[in-house]
Amino acid sequence: MRRRSFLATAATAAAQPPAASKGVRFGIDLFSIRSQGWTPFEYLDYCAKFKARVVHFSEIRFMGSLEEAHLKKVRAHAAKLGVEIEIGMRSICPSSKAFDPAQGTAEEQLTRMIAAAVTVGSPIVRTFLGTMADRTGPVSIEAHIENTAKVLRNVRARVVDAGLKVAIENHAGDMQGRELKMLIEEAGKDFVGACLDSGNPLWTIEDPHLTLETLAPYVITSHVRDTAVWKDAGRIGVAWTRMGEGNIGIREYTRKFQELCPGRPFSLEIIVTQPRWFAYQDPKFWDAYRKTPAWEFARFLALAEKGAPYQGLPPAPKEQAAQREREDLEASIRFAHEELGV
How far is CA 169 from CA 22, 51, 115, 200, 334, in A? Predict the structure, then answer.
């Protein structure tokens, strides 16, 4: 598949007013530009140039510090720019391979983030269970889900008293849509919702349109990017792309999101990758997906069968990584504004 170019400089994109957003709020997840090494003030200034109304600090490192005085300064700067802040953290599942016990218990880590969210003015704390590595091993994904739900129930009073919600992401191949729905309902949908990622479903052999349809009633915020998916020699290839360069039907996905999730942030998280391969014809592959209904996989397979091999640019050298991230994001912003009306 030929790579289309939507490169735009910051000045050009900023000069283009976004089309009507149909009730969703355009945002940027800072993981899109994770290699910049900027201060939170510089991140906010950059995103404001592109008409972002929400800036999603998906990891603590982008904020720089959770010290109260610092957070108050960040909040004031965002207010001056007319930007809403969302903050996030990594895994809160104590049995996940992604969890970092050196930072304290899951409850302690989440409690710190609740306090930080109140100070910085974030209506949510975004977090996640783990990665696709948690789908295999001695602990089942169902047990990981219950362990995460228990942590959330343990901090419910703190979240509710703070007037916040916890947004759990379908992250890096950890949970399919119906599994995240189960986690939210077991924890308590009155204070827990979904950070809906459009790229990660493909890492769980799931059609992202199905994920959206399943989780729409629970969506609090989002990460949005396009993806190419195709069949090749008994495998399925998945590559995250710039917006408009995939084949998952990003225009229809956006239309559905606007219809099903009005008022929610539509935040670009642009990560451009080389293909990840799923050997679905190997019986051992299914150890991670024993409970996946056939009809759900059939939707994913049909999507792959319609795709063509994706050929993007080779990975950028380390010294050019930061620039490439900006180019990928800015091209995607232009596509979202001009082609998607967001």
Answer: 24, 24, 20, 9, 25
